[in-house]
């Protein structure tokens, strides 16, 4: 019987959940789902000075919004410090690690000597074989692993292939600091082992860490999980992803009006491919995701592609569901509170009725909200400059002629208003646009909107006729 698959996402709570971390979480989640396993969430909060509860909350909120779930409660690495120290002492007792009594001055001297000789800083192993009885008084020791002095440490990686590290480059690094706290390198090994992690998927900037962690695994006689190191995300120009490219927190993408399903689809295609498939449902991603499909080259973040994909998902999303997304987004944008105050049951119904026209033109929920602005506008409207230009003498003449005809309609619908407007245009010899555009300017205050007859139907007879009357009086 095969061992159940266990992956983990292990962010440091020193800031928001950035887009690279979100993709790592997605890959771990998909791999676990594909193999009927589970993903665990571990908060690597051993850096007490930089770790904050606000960052923990932001990470959990970002994962939840993306729809990435984990098994059980999030695990705090810091709360397991006693276990990490216990394992370090076991390694000392087994002769696989040792107490180092070097003072900060001695370590600085080592670094300076190496630097002067053009060498990378390395610990020189001076306490590796000394008896602790030689320890100077008053110095609290750290614990260092006994790294192999010769040969190579070899990592078999599902993405990078066989990666070899000369052991001369991997010194006797610290696993337990002199204050008794574990280093990241050591804590990760103990946690992954105790949590039963079978597959590690993380950024390729961790490859050297993996070599060092393998030394700890070997010293403990534990099997190391399988590893897959994925290339980092770059900007469109090929440079390392920065804030100007889109290295923002997941909450920023939510506030920009992206749908979770679109961001998931976009992220899975950043560095992983299945043929030429661009649009994949979550179920398809789970069914298809494999480590073999991950490339070795960095992927490039492209806002244009993300917007187009988001537009696709907006068009595919049922209208009532889109209304729910809009309502949820209002809590995360500056003008949201004012709009939410106006969003009673009647306005929600209007918004749902307007969705077929709104979603055809929007690539983000922010665009959709902006295009729905006519629903929330108070009379009399303040048309923008382009719309005001349409309300000239010719435009107002058309509106004045149309107002009684529209007011006489026995039933108010998009089809009925369109029939009246087309008949008027034919009767006067005007092109339809010469009539419909002033009507749009009067009803919405803008020159662009969903189809004007849909707008009139959604606004309702009284509101639509009132706005036309206001435009004539203005």
From TrEMBL:
Cite the Glutamyl/glutaminyl-tRNA synthetase class Ib catalytic domain residue spans from the record: 5-307
The UniProt annotation puts the region (Disordered) at 116-140
State its location(s): Cytoplasm
Renumbered ranges of motif 'KMSKS' region: 240-244
- UniProt keyword list: Aminoacyl-tRNA synthetase, ATP-binding, Cytoplasm, Ligase, Nucleotide-binding, Protein biosynthesis
Domain Aminoacyl-tRNA synthetase class I anticodon-binding, residue spans: 339-471
Q: How does it assemble?
A: Monomer.
The role this protein plays is: Catalyzes the attachment of glutamate to tRNA(Glu) in a two-step reaction: glutamate is first activated by ATP to form Glu-AMP and then transferred to the acceptor end of tRNA(Glu).
Q: Which family does it belong to?
A: Belongs to the class-I aminoacyl-tRNA synthetase family. Glutamate--tRNA ligase type 1 subfamily.
Name used for this protein in its record: Glutamate--tRNA ligase
State which gene encodes it. Answer: gltX
């Amino acid at each position: 019987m095969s061992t159940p698959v266990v992956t983990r996402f292990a962010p440091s709570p020193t800031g928001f959940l950035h887009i690279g971390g979100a993709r790592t979480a997605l890959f771990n989640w998909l791999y676990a789902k594909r193999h009927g396993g589970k993903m665990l969430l571990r908060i690597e909060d051993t850096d007490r000075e930089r770790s904050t509860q606000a960052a923990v909350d932001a990470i959990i909120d970002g994962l939840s919004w993306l729809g990435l779930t984990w098994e059980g409660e999030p695990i705090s690495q810091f709360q397991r410090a006693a276990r990490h120290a216990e394992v370090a002492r076991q390694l000392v007792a087994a002769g696989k690690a040792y107490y180092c009594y070097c003072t900060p001055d001695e370590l600085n001297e080592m670094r300076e000597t190496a630097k002067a000789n053009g060498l990378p800083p390395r610990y020189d192993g001076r306490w590796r074989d000394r008896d602790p009885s030689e320890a100077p008084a008053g110095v609290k020791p750290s614990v260092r692993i006994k790294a192999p002095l010769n040969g190579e440490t070899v990592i078999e990686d599902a993405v990078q292939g066989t990666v070899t590290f000369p052991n001369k480059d991997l010194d006797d690094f610290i696993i337990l600091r002199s204050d008794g706290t574990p280093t990241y390198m050591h804590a990760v090994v103990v946690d992954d082992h105790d949590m039963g992690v079978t597959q590690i998927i993380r950024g390729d900037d961790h490859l050297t860490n993996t070599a060092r962690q393998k030394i700890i695994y070997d010293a403990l006689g534990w099997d190391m999980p399988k590893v897959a190191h994925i290339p980092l995300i770059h900007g469109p120009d090929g440079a390392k992803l920065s804030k100007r490219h889109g290295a923002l927190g997941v909450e920023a993408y939510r506030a920009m009006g992206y749908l979770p399903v679109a961001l998931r689809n976009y992220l899975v295609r950043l560095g992983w491919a299945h043929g030429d498939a661009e649009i994949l449902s979550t179920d398809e991603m789970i069914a298809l995701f494999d480590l073999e499909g991950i490339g070795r080259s960095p992927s490039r973040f492209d806002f244009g592609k993300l917007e187009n994909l988001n537009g696709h998902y907006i068009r595919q999303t049922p209208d009532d569901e889109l209304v729910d997304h809009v309502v949820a987004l209002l809590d995360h944008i500056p003008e949201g509170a004012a709009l939410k105050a106006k969003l009673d049951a009647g306005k929600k119904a209007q918004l749902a009725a307007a969705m077929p026209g709104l979603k055809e033109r929007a690539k983000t929920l922010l665009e959709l909200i902006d295009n729905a602005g006519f629903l929330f506008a108070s009379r009399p409207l303040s048309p923008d400059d382009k719309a005001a230009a349409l309300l000239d003498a010719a435009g107002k003449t058309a509106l004045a002629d149309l107002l009684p005809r529209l007011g006489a309609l026995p039933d108010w619908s998009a089809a009925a208003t369109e029939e009246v407007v087309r008949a008027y245009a034919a009767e006067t010899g005007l092109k339809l646009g010469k009539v419909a555009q002033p009507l749009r300017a009067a009803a919405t205050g803008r020159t662009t909107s969903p189809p004007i007859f849909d707008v009139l139907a959604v606004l309702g007879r009284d509101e639509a006729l009132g706005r036309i009357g206001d435009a004539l009086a203005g």
